[in-house]
Write a structure and sequence with these properties.
The chain contains 38 helices and 40 strands. By secondary structure, the protein is of the alpha+beta class. The radius of gyration is 45 Å and the shape is elongated.
Length: about 1200
């Protein structure tokens, strides 16, 4: 397991020996194996460190019996057996007068036999609790709460707190299971006490000293988390007494090497009680080393070599002596040190140690196992640390949960605390495991810890408030208090959005991969693989979030609640080379790693900036699963037994710890695993048939607004950003173009987003600074790559243009960008270079700049400097759209289209995916294509002589004045020829109308003809029309687009009325016109007409297969019906009116809308029904009334 985990120590050893895997009784705790390997390899000494066999007295005994003997770097077997055994050490301590807390052997007094190194067996047996029944009796006599402890336990194993008699039996069995074969005893629990310990070092000549000590009061499950030294809770006088008692105990049993005497200390009465002696080096020994400057492992080695304490250099310095004694005769004892009377140097500042463990702090410090992808720590002069593996390692199920240790020093406790908190925040650990790093960093910033108001129950109290035992969160929600630890720097809602983004991104990529695989296999991929909308459900901290994730681009998503998609937040995601995700939300970036994939049994776990976030699986109390890897040790309930809510049903062994599992709801249990089974996270242990399934409280579903930066309504999110469009139009143009292209590529864009992008683009292309910013952007790349004079010349032109813009801004004076001047500068400078190769090099380098300038030299309208730029982008979009849809409107169905694409793109299935994805959003892409065609249509109607970007139908055109408008018509013709049914009918019709419009006479010529015809009508007195008027009506040219410009020009009232009559005759061509009456004074035209439907030669949905065919149709007038689609059609209600019924129409010209009320009577009196000359119609309303308001400047035409 250590090899697979890539343990760090493997690379440090000179000789590596394979040993059996599994639990430590097969390897590191197997004394026979250790001794045999030591003999085999001829080692001189064995150092057992801590844990495993380090406290097993059989190991030094067996090593001593070896031939030749092998030195054990530690105490001899008898003292280790006497003091390492908790029962024996407590008997020896209380017999020596050391204060002890109440326990089941508190009345036993015995004498330690130093020659044998043991206590009398009958005394030892008397102090041992042998059965669960005896344990319950002793616990009741001592009074609850009590601690049931294994005499050979340690490191948090073999110890249980019990608060009531009913739990004694289970706790007793768990302690026996964690330390098999160990004697058991019961001790009264000392509440509100501190755990203080004295570091001992004794030589082989009877000397023993105390190397100060440590405060290890911050514990969970009786296992240390934070250690610090020197202890400041006890007064100096009391601490000196504790050290003296510890030294006396060591001398009483002739203890050698390093050891630790542990005490419980009550601050209320300043009393201390012996707890136990650890006959080994503690894992937190660097705390003592930093405050005493004594290297404890080196001191252990020197003691084992036979050196007395006063010969060890660092010990001498600690007691104020020279590091090396002077050379004297062998029998001279002047260099000896009387440790009992010689004062010790003061501590060297303060040191705090933190254990780095693979445990889930938010789940009661439950152990976890798995791989590590990143471990980043750098020691500093103030903080030192070590780890048992690196970034390529892992924590396996048989390992101890601790895999690292940090030590921070400072001039005082507060200084050391600050250094440690900073180190913890900079430590980065990422992998399949959970760690306590962030939790402890927060813990050390709590007021209680800062003020040193802690005891051994302090951390367990915090855990108990957050977590019910070792099971799930109580009631599904974590409870908090003032001194509780909330490790979440980031709001839970941000974690939810991050998780949803990752799941949606992964689903999209998986669907794409599946699509490509099916294409390569010759199979038809289902269209569901092209979906851009994913439903995600996540549970965090007892709250379920039902989310809708919409893919807006290859790496862009909109996250909203499923039942309210009007509010959303946009996210972007990039995949890092190490498998992480760089996700941007609301302007903030988060580096996120998935440490456990989402599953029905375990949920997903992510790591965000070092914080481990665990999403819960969906709540299912009927399935009892293990959420960690381990072994099923015991079934606490038999098959078919009834279990109550919160009752333990099984015990599992996780990292040498026994942990109870509890049911979440009452019911009858059915087992699916046997005792001894190895478990993986998510394995089903048992099922529960619930007593009252209808009463099971499910997790709450979140409603409301998410507390996430950027969370806003769709309308607000889609609102144009005027500041960007005005101050940085090139960025606004770019973002808008990306949105439109993403929509055309098949990624979902809301209607609001498309409209916002369209509006932003319209603002940007009309901004005079657009070309300046785009060219400046190119110039920044060319700085240093083109000659300085050329660079300065171009820069000066741009600077001067900006200065002119600032001077004329707000004046309404259009400013023409000097694009042609810039092109001339480039050409002129190139012409001055005689060397052909240099000239070609310059032209190559400046080609991107020239390409950027060129479109702005082809924009003729001063009000739309970006017209040509926009037109080129629109042409690219239309060509791509046509290329996508041609594959589908020419095929019978989706499968035929895919098969045709497969034949064309045999070697590039990604192209097929892109085409199919784009086709899936046909409705949106067709709408955008239609908007582009509409913009082109408006652009062709621009009157350049008017020096305005407003077309003759009143709309601002983004492509007005673009030189290449005529060049785009072949693409428009191809779109106009599309068949394929209703899906393409509207956009094809719009293309055909645009082609017809482009084929008509120029705007100026049409205005002349219409104005001349209007004059002829105004001068005529009868119903006969002049030849000019007949020609205008025969051409069927649209009159609406020139109607208002002519009305606003300086024409006489009679000509204006003649224009109205011409317009009405044009508009009512599908009807039989009878009479016309003009009233110049009242500005009214009255006419009568009859229903008479006129059928066009070509219907609006007819298919035209070529541009030449379309041109012939236009020239022959057969597209008349198409052109009249918006302005001359018979309403369906008209079909109900008999063709013999004469109808009346009235059209009145107004200067402004405010005169409508005054003009209404004059208009109404023209109707015969109103004056009473004719009776009302039986079929309802048959007449029509028009008001044309000609005095308003900003006219917005309908589409």
């Amino acid at each position: 397991e250590d090899f697979r985990a890539n343990a760090e120590y493997i690379r440090m050893g000179d000789v590596i020996v394979d040993v059996p895997g599994g639990s430590n009784n097969h390897n590191y705790a197997n004394v026979t194996l250790i001794v045999e390997l030591a003999r085999l390899h001829g080692v001189h000494a064995v150092w057992a460190g801590w844990g495993h066999a380090s406290e097993n007295p059989t190991l030094p005994d067996e090593l001593e019996r070896s031939n030749p003997p092998i030195k054990f770097i530690g105490p001899q077997g008898p003292p280790m057996r006497a003091l390492g055994d908790k029962i024996g050490s407590t008997i020896i301590a209380q017999s020596a007068g050391v204060p002890c807390i109440g326990w089941n052997g508190q009345d036993i007094i015995a004498e330690y036999d130093r020659s044998k190194g043991s206590l009398p067996q009958d005394v030892y047996d008397e102090a041992t609790v042998s059965t669960a029944t005896q344990a319950e009796t002793c616990a009741t006599q001592l009074g609850f709460p009590v601690m049931i402890k294994a005499s050979e336990g340690g490191g948090g194993k073999g110890i249980r707190k019990v608060t009531r008699a009913e739990d004694v039996a289970d706790a007793y069995r768990q302690v026996c299971g964690e330390v098999p074969g160990s004697p058991i005893f019961i001790m009264k629990l000392s509440q509100n006490s501190r755990h203080l310990e004295v570091q001992l070092l004794a030589d082989e000549y009877g000397d023993a000293i105390a190397l100060n000590g440590r405060d290890c009061s911050v514990q969970r499950r009786h296992q240390k988390i934070i250690e610090e030294g020197p202890p400041v809770a006890a007064s100096p006088d009391v601490w000196k007494e504790m050290e003296k008692a510890a030294v006396a105990l060591a001398k009483a049993v002739h203890y050698t090497n390093a050891g630790t005497v542990e005490y419980l200390y009550s601050e209320l009465d300043s009393k201390f009680y012996f707890l136990e002696l650890n006959p080994r080096l503690q894992v937190e020994h660097p705390v003592t080393e930093m405050i005493t400057r004594v290297n404890l492992p080196a001191a252990q080695l020197q003691v084992a070599m036979g050196l007395p304490l006063y010969h060890i250099p660092e010990i001498r310095e600690l007691y104020g002596k020279n590091r090396y004694e002077e050379a004297v005769a062998d029998n001279d004892e002047s260099n000896k040190i009387d440790f009992a009377t010689t004062p010790r140097e003061d501590p060297n500042g303060h040191c705090i140690a933190v254990r780095i463990t693979a445990e889930n702090a938010e789940a009661g410090f439950k152990p976890t196992s798995g791989g590590i992808q990143e471990l980043n720590f750098r020691s500093t002069p103030s903080v030192w640390g070590y780890f048992s593996m690196d970034s390529s390692g892992s924590i396996h199920e048989f390992a101890d949960s601790q895999f690292g240790h940090l030590f921070a020093r400072g001039s005082d406790r507060e200084h050391a605390r600050r250094n440690m908190v900073l180190a913890l925040k900079e430590l980065s650990i990422r992998g399949d495991i959970s760690t306590t790093v962030e939790y402890i960093a927060k813990l050390m910033e709590l007021e209680d810890y800062v003020a040193n108001r802690i005891d051994t129950a302090w951390l367990d109290g915090i855990i108990a408030q957050n977590i019910d035992g070792m099971g799930a969160a109580a009631g599904g929600a974590l409870k908090r208090r003032r001194s509780s630890v909330n490790i979440e720097d980031v709001d839970n809602h941000v974690y939810v959005v991050l998780g949803a983004t990752i799941l949606a991104f992964d689903k999209s990529k998986e669907a794409e991969t599946t699509f490509l695989n099916l294409i390569e296999k010759g199979q038809l991929p289902p269209r569901t693989l092209l979906t851009m909308k994913h439903k995600i459900e996540l549970i965090l901290s007892g709250m379920k979030y039902k989310l809708s994730c919409i893919c807006n681009g290859p790496d862009r998503f909109s996250i909203s609640l499923s039942d309210d998609e009007s509010n959303k937040v946009s996210t972007t995601v990039r995949v890092l080379s190490d498998g992480g995700y760089l996700i941007a939300i609301g302007g903030q970036s988060y580096v996120t790693y998935v440490t456990a994939r989402n599953s029905a049994s375990t949920g997903m776990r992510i790591n965000v900036a070092g914080a481990s976030v665990a999403f819960s699986p969906d709540y299912d109390p009927t399935s009892l699963r293990s959420d960690v890897a381990g072994k099923l040790v015991k079934k606490l309930k038999p098959e078919g037994a009834h279990v109550k809510k919160g009752e333990a049903y099984a015990e599992i062994e996780v990292m040498k710890m026994f942990m109870p599992l509890k049911v979440e709801e009452s019911g009858t249990i059915s087992w699916r695993q046997n005792e001894g089974a190895s478990l993986q996270a998510g394995d089903l242990l048992a099922e529960v048939e619930l007593d009252n399934p209808e009463n099971v409280a499910m997790v709450s579903v979140f409603e409301g607004a998410m507390n996430v930066a950027g969370w806003t309504s769709t309308a607000a999110a889609a609102a144009p950003a005027p500041s960007i469009a005005k101050t940085r139009p090139h960025l606004a143009f770019r973002y808008a173009l990306e949105t439109l292209k993403a929509a055309m590529a098949g990624y979902i864009q809301s209607l609001e987003d498309v409209e916002a992008a369209w509006a932003d683009m319209a603002i940007a292309v009309a901004n005079p600074l657009l070309p300046a910013y785009e060219i400046e952007e190119n110039m920044s790349v060319l700085s240093g790559r083109i000659p300085a004079p050329l660079f300065d010349s171009v820069s000066n032109v741009l600077t001067e243009f900006k200065r002119s813009y600032d001077a004329t801004s707000g004046s309404g004076i259009p400013l023409k960008f000097p694009a042609r001047d810039l092109l001339s500068i480039l050409k002129s400078y190139a012409d001055t270079i005689d060397d052909t190769s240099e000239k070609q090099l310059l032209e190559t380098v400046t080609a991107p700049l020239r390409d950027t300038i060129l479109p702005y030299s082809k924009s003729k309208a001063a009000g739309v400097p970006g017209a040509e730029r926009a037109l080129l982008c629109f042409e690219e979009i239309l060509r791509n759209w046509l290329g996508v849809e041609r594959s589908f409107y020419e095929a019978n169905d989706f499968s035929d289209a895919v098969e045709n694409l497969r034949r064309v793109h045999k070697t590039d299935p990604a192209v097929i995916l892109d085409i199919c994805r784009a086709h899936e959003q046909l409705a949106t892409s067709s709408a955008i294509a239609g908007k582009i065609l509409g913009a082109i249509s408006d652009g062709t109607r621009l009157d350049l002589d008017a020096n305005s970007a407003v077309s003759n139908v009143g709309r601002v055109s983004m492509v007005a004045g673009a030189e290449s408008l005529s060049s785009i018509m072949p693409v428009v013709a191809d779109i106009g020829s599309i068949g394929g049914g209703d899906s393409y009918a509207e956009v094809a019709l719009r293309a055909r109308k645009l082609l017809m419009q482009a084929s008509m006479p120029s705007l100026d010529r049409r205005k002349e003809h219409i104005l001349s015809a209007s004059k002829d009508i105004s001068e005529s007195s009868g119903s006969d029309l002049s030849r000019e008027a007949q020609n205008v009506l025969a051409e069927r040219s649209p009159i609406a687009e020139v109607l208002f410009p002519i009305l606003k020009s300086n024409i006489s009232p009679s000509v204006s009325i003649g224009l109205l009559e011409l317009y009405l005759r044009h508009l009512y061509r599908p009807y039989s016109l009878k009479t016309f009456e003009r009233d110049v004074d009242k500005k009214v035209v009255k006419f009568s007409f009859l229903n008479k439907r006129e059928e066009g030669v070509l219907s609006s949905s007819a298919s035209i297969t070529s541009f030449s065919e379309l041109t012939r149709a236009v020239s022959s007038g057969s597209l008349g019906q198409v052109s009249d689609h918006s302005e001359s059609k018979i309403d369906r209600k008209d079909e109900q009116i008999p063709s013999t019924m004469e109808r009346t129409g009235v059209c009145m010209l107004l200067n402004d809308i405010n005169s409508l009320n005054a003009a209404m009577p004059n208009a109404l009196e023209k109707f015969p029904q109103y004056s009473g000359a004719t009776s009302k119609s039986d079929v309802g309303a048959i007449n029509v009334l028009y008001f044309i308001v000609a005095g308003v400047d900003a006219i917005v035409g309908s589409d």
